[in-house]
Specification:
Blueprint: E1 10-13, E2 16-17, E3 28-35, E4 38-45, E5 54-60, E6 66-76, E7 80-81, E8 90-94, E9 100-106, E10 122-131, E11 147-155, E12 160-167, H1 169-187
């Protein structure tokens, strides 16, 4: 099932890069779960050698049914409580050239900094939410440029950074169909 379809709770970043970094190197997963007035977002950094990056900013959206979101806790898969290491939730933030997202959280830089998500690690963010009839899909929504979510990936002490994102499924399907058509056209005699 593609992220963004009814019943989907995950999006996987690795489709878009905002610089010369290959998009496939910018790999992370966002898992959304809504229970009552609580949103749980698990962000897992799936980057691997030789392009290991840390994630230090997270961007996602909400539907028009979402009236408020506030960060309650942040727990690193190894370090434990890292709530103080992450900036309070911000609204209407831009992610590089990817456009504006409804919500953003930012940490810092540095290999041992607890406010980054290192390769093969995750942070579980818990939010208090308000709105009408909210479910997981209320947070898998495209921004004005068609992106469902994004992360800032940093590599090294010089903060070499790139933003990774995933477009909404219809955009991705159009891209795949276009590439398939181009391949068929090139093979035609």
């Amino acid at each position: 099932m593609l992220a963004g379809q009814a019943g989907a709770t995950s999006i996987t970043l690795s489709t878009v890069s905002t610089d010369d970094t290959p998009a496939s190197a910018l790999d992370a997963t966002f898992d959304f779960s809504v229970t009552g007035s609580t949103l749980t977002l698990v962000v897992t950094n799936d980057t691997t050698d030789p392009d290991e990056f840390n994630v230090n900013e997270v961007f996602f959206n909400g539907s028009g049914d979402v009236t408020s979101v506030s960060l309650v806790s942040a727990t690193h898969s190894v370090v434990g409580d890292v709530l103080a290491a992450w900036q309070p939730l911000e609204t209407s933030e831009r992610a590089g050239g990817l456009g504006e997202f409804g919500f953003a959280m930012s940490g810092g830089v540095g290999e041992t900094n607890p406010n980054v998500i290192q390769p093969a690690k995750s942070v579980t963010f818990v939010f208090s939410i308000d709105g009408t009839g909210l479910d997981d899909n209320d947070f898998i929504q495209p921004n004005e440029n068609g992106y469902l979510g994004a992360a800032k990936f940093v590599n090294g002490p010089g903060d070499d950074s790139a933003f990774g994102a995933v477009p909404e499924p219809s955009t991705g399907l159009l891209l795949i169909a276009g590439l398939a058509g181009l391949g068929a056209w090139r093979r035609a005699p």
